[in-house]
Amino acid sequence: MKISFSTGSLFGLPLKTVFRLAADAGFEGVEVLVAPEVLARGAAGVLGLARKFGLSVNAVHRGLLSLPGWGETREGRVRLVELARRLEAPLVVIHPPWKCRSMDDAVVTRYIQGVDVAQKAGGGEVELALENMSFKREGDRLNPFTDLTNLRAFAGDHGLAMTLDTSHAASFGFDILESASIFRDRMKNLHLSDYKPRSRLLGNRILTNHFAQHQVPGTGVLPLRALLASLAADGYSGNVSLEVGPIPTRAWWRPTLRRKMAAMAAFVRQARDGEGA
What we know:
This protein has helices spanning 15-25, 36-52, 74-86, 106-122, 148-157, 166-171, 176-183, 205-211, 224-233, 254-273; strands at 2-6, 29-33, 56-61, 91-94, 127-131, 161-165, 187-192, 239-242. It is of the alpha/beta class. It has one domain (2-273): Divalent-metal-dependent TIM barrel enzymes (TIM Barrel, Alpha-Beta Barrel), CATH 3.20.20. Strands 1-2-3-4-5-6-7-8 form an 8-stranded parallel barrel, surrounded by 7 helices. Helix 3 packs parallel to helix 4 and helix 9 packs across helix 10. It is globular and about 50 Å long.
């Protein structure tokens, strides 16, 4: 089990600062979110910085901002895969198509074609890890990819690895232990965060992301210790990326941020190493 920190958790801070904080907190690697500084430094610069702090790059994720050429398009996924290869990262996190209402939709056909191109670009060195979706509005339930069994079957049919996002699963009301069981044989990446149900926030993506989803492990309602213990007992050797928001970690106050980051790294390590069992 690889313990990583998603750079997207501290989006806006200099990459050097994020890497230093992650290393000091006890993280072993990072999941790199594509951002302007990543593109400015280039793959060699980012990889060199990671090595300076003793971190591996365990996954690559598209950016929070819509950077030209780096979105969820055929060309964008190929760029992500090529970046991952240069960063020596084994995974690129991808997302299902949003705008579809059946698996036979033309959108899905084009999506499959694009994914096939990206897989070929990976050359057997980089896998695409399909992530489960987040609930934003009631219409999302009409998308067949929100059903985890459908998503797992699709991944299997097209040779994709999987990323389980715990707070995304919880936002649909899914049991995360059952969700992990569905994904388990293809899961290579886990986006770990807690969830605090706040019904009044539904429909507002920004408020939901900051105050309901992507909370510090142990502060919400999810059985994350049980999930990690189960994965550890099952010999899970994939990546675990802490993907939390800047508000739950109080990112603006460095002493609190450092304390919370160290606690999150320890949270995963204790489960992996069987401490306190």
